[in-house]
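User: Hi! I'm working on a homework problem where we have to compare a predicted structure to a textbook description. Could you give me the structure for the chain below?
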Amino acid sequence: MEKISVLSKFTIARMSDEVFWLDEKGNFFWVNQAACKALGYEEKELLGMSVFDINPNMNEEKWANHWKIQRQQNEPVEAIHRRKDGTSFQVEIVNNFIEFEKRIYSCAIVRDVTERKEKEAQFQLTYDRLKESEYKSRFAHFTVSRAGDAIFWICQNGKIKFVNEACCKRLGYTRQEILQKTIFDINPNFDPEKLSQHFDRIRVEGKAVLESEHHTKEGKIIPVEIASNYVEFEGEAFTCSIVRDITERKLKESALRGALMEIRELKERLEEENNYFQEEIKLDHNFGEIITQSQAFKSVLAEIEQVAETDSTVLVTGESGTGKELIARSIHKLSRRCDRPIIKVNCAALPGNLIESELFGHEKGAFTGALTKKKGRFELADKGTLFLDEIGEMPIELQAKLLRVLQEGEFEPVGSSQTIKVDVRILAATNRDLQKEVEKGSFREDLYYRLNVFPIHCIPLRDRKEDIPLLIRHFCKKFESKIGKRITNIPQKVIKQLQDYDFPGNIRELENFVERAIILSKNGKLEIGSWLPKTSNKTLSKKIVSLDELQKQHIIKTLQHTSWRVSGEKGAAKLLGIKPTTLESRMKKLNIRRSNEVAS
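Assistant: Happy to help. Predicted structure tokens:
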């Protein structure tokens, strides 16, 4: 016991960590050489000082509260220490409260964490203040034996020279059992060669911190952080290792890695969606919102409102330039999925061999040029809406795969055997007559019926000419900043000329025409110049039909928009401004049946 006590005192006095012994009033009772060196004082100077002299943030009231809390919690604390030359450094302090000979002392073990603050749980325990020679030796041995952290003294051959009570409790051995073992029994990650290298390192550096594992008597593996200090005593080298259980920290790190992995996956998805939206932003849509005063088109708006709140598939038909995409975006905006993206695929703009990859994604190396893994539009649109524009242009060989996704909500990326499930609402648009494409064999009949759950027909501009004045004013406003001209006067003559033109290119053609007209205009007055195409007499004569035929076509178009509903608030009679019985009489007279087709 005498040798162990002397060894404890000698070890603490020469350890490279700072050690302060303090009484309840904060006076220094004993300091080691490392503390003197760190603060720049002689030992005699420090022994006449208190914690208030080296900690500028501490006063008597704070110290009394600190002493009380630390005795209850005994948690590491951070503070600022000031050297003799006035410079300061940040430290981590571990207080060990010891009752010895009916007096309470704090052994403050201080570590400079200025450069290593973020490394959690790294120890450099030093011990503070001893009294006289015999008292100090016994006191140091008493303190180390009862310290809360596990402490080992290990010889160069791996023999365990001494352990404290905390070490025995943590590992489940008695002191006698541990002293009969080597460090290789406790830490299987060490072998004689590694231990020799470890001694060589701490002999040069004085100390080292590493992570490893300790095995308990029951075989449980405990992750630990080991702070080793090199000590020579009576010609023999030892390592004094202070060991902390970091199980909880490892669990937190593992949870953090899992969270970071999830964040990384979400970030990658957001980046892919952002890349898609950057391309979408470049698109020049016909207009930012639906502009109409047409009674016929208001029936279309009613259909949009009815179907938007469902997840039903919608097929938008109509000529090019009539605003099919705008209708699709309006449906999405009014739907429950509006907080997720609407992803667009233009089936006519992509080569046939790339549409599959765009829709379903591909694995790295799936085909020539597939340098990285890519998510498809279906996966990007998960929980949102996928808009398949120009669906009539989709190659027949891909239609079966599309049908499977619509029916089962799953697919495999190109080059992958992994099945991906998605929840996507489908909106499709086409300027083709898909029924005729089915008859020709260029479009699958089962896919057509799967898409045609709720058809919406987009009315051509020639059938809603009352909207032309509104659209002209809208486009004039839109192009003000782009062209640098403000149009304040739109002559009625210009409106009349434009209303007399049929606009085969529909709203897109009108938009382009207004932009050209603004360029030509002067003094805020819209001028159309000679851009407007002339309608020849021959063409005009072809358009002239009998009143009965004109009436028949108008009634059929109105019936188509109301799904052939005659009466009621949403019936054709209401739109036409006549009684249902009158409409039925005219239908009978003009031989109008649901099988009739409207010439266009």
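For your comparison, note the following. The first helix runs from residue 2 to 14. The chain has four domains: 2-248, 283-457, 464-537, 545-589. Good luck with the assignment!
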